[in-house]
Amino acid sequence: MSRITLKVNGTAHTVDVDPLTPLLYVLRNDLGLQGPRFGCGLGQCGACAVIINGVATRSCVTPCSNVRSEITTLEGLASNGTLHPVQQAWIDEQVPQCGFCQNGQIITAKVLLDKTPNPTDAQIREGMAGALCRCMTYYRVQAAVKRAAVTIKAGGAA
Ligand code: FES
Ligand code: FES
Questions:
Q1: Model confidence pLDDT, tens digit, residues 66-93
Q2: Closest CA to 73 of 146, 24, 40
Q3: Shortest-distance Cα residue to atom 3 of ligand 1
Q4: Average pLDDT score, the chain
Q5: pTM > 0.90: yes or no
Q6: Beta carbon of 106 within 6 Å of any ligand 1 atom
Q7: Which ligand 2 atom is the nearest neighbour of the CA of 135?
Q8: Which runs of E-coded beta strand occur in 69-132?
Q9: Please, which residues have CB within 8 angstroms of residue 12's CB and are 6 or more apart in sequence?
Q10: Averaged over 101-118, what is the pLDDT?
Q11: Atom of ligand 2 at shortest distance to CA of 97?
């Protein structure tokens, strides 16, 4: 066991864990952050995504001791009680079905829009390709990404 300090959503947390423990387990089990989901556990579906250094990172295959930079989870996207435009767009477009993959969809969309503020349909498909959805919400995901892009461009907090 090792004492490991992680900065998550602006707050530093020290945990006593095996250094190889997946970041996802620490976030969910030790820090109580239930946004990141356990989907495949194999780095294939994206349900466990968090943002590290501007990258949608699969926390199920990331040893917690490897993380040196701040982590942003789904819980960290809202600001002062206001949802991030991506989250609001997800509600407005009624994207989720079962909801299980949606953490990964929202985190991936946030990263996509940070890098490509006005994406084409092709860029959205490419940028979102790693976030799998067994309920086939892809068309609504695409609509929500476009809606969020318009909101952010109009001055909504990003
Ligand atoms: S749960 Fe991490 S990629 Fe599927
Ligand atoms: S909403 Fe069910 S897996 Fe995507």
A1: 999 999 999 999 999 999 999 999 999 9
A2: 24
A3: 43
A4: 97
A5: yes
A6: no
A7: 2
A8: 71-72
A9: 5, 6
A10: 98
A11: 1
Cα–Cα distance for residue pair 118/39, rounded to 1 Å: 29
Tens of pLDDT, residue by residue over 2-45, are 999 999 999 999 999 999 999 999 999 999 999 999 999 999 99
The span from the CA of 45 to the CA of 66, in Å, is: 21
Q: What residues line ligand 2, using a CB cutoff of 6 Å?
A: 96-102, 133-135, 137
Output b/e per residue, 34-51; b: 16+ Cβ within 10 A. ebbbebeeebebbbbbbb
Which residue owns the Cα nearest ligand 2 atom 4?
A: 133
Distance in Å, CA 123 to ligand 2 centroid:
21
CA distance 155 to 157: 6
Q: DSSP secondary-structure letter at 39?
A: S
